[in-house]
């Protein structure tokens, strides 16, 4: 099947509208197989380069609904979504190893068009990491490179978002109106604590603060609290 | 290995998991498409295809799908990464 950027973007419009006809569905299946093949290439290279105890490496392929949600949430077109194919590297140390890993990733994909998006310099609603965009022709992939603290913060925010709404990850406020006053306050405080922990992680990673253990504990406390609340309210 | 998880966001728990070896690239994509088609609650149930060296590695990078709590309803072969 021959695809063009325009055809992919037309498919994106159909996905947004929620009305995929049979032709759209087969184009989507083909496109997903192309994304998966790119993902396979990215994954193989990363595992060869980074697959040891210092690094956790994996690859995720978004499904139709998460693609649709992203298209509706943003002004991006389908051809420019870079995290449909999302690799993740979690390193076991701080900024220095992260910087080194970014350079190694870029070198690894020298045959591709590569772009670095530094979300430490430009955080996305508190989310910090370095992303490397990898393009091969029409198809885009992304490698997220995170330090342990950046990763735990992102995981805590994901956990909390299950209870207070996914929009908190994209700049929306927490939705806690349906909970009892006690749970309402716990969730609101957890959200504020998490935002504050994000600021402290940044200072800690550049060496202004030296409180890594305390930060991890703060993040673990929030995740544990989320699980306890989920057990009670679900 | 390749893993497809079905994750219910509202409970934070997996409701299904399919495991494939690396050679099952195409069958895993067929299964992903099938699960996507069958998903009647797409806003609550995420269907995600993940690839890594092991499930323990996936627990490290995508812990929200592979925590003890998230996996409490499904059979697990996970060896804890931490």
Automatic annotation (TrEMBL), chain A:
Recorded superkingdom: Bacteria
Any single GO BP term: guanosine tetraphosphate metabolic process
CDD domains: NT_Rel-Spo_like
Segments forming domain RelA/SpoT: 59-166
Chain segments annotated as coiled-coil in the UniProt record: none
Pfam families: RelA_SpoT
InterPro entries: NT_sf, RelA_SpoT
Gene3D superfamilies associated with the record: Beta Polymerase, domain 2
Protein's recorded name: RelA/SpoT domain-containing protein
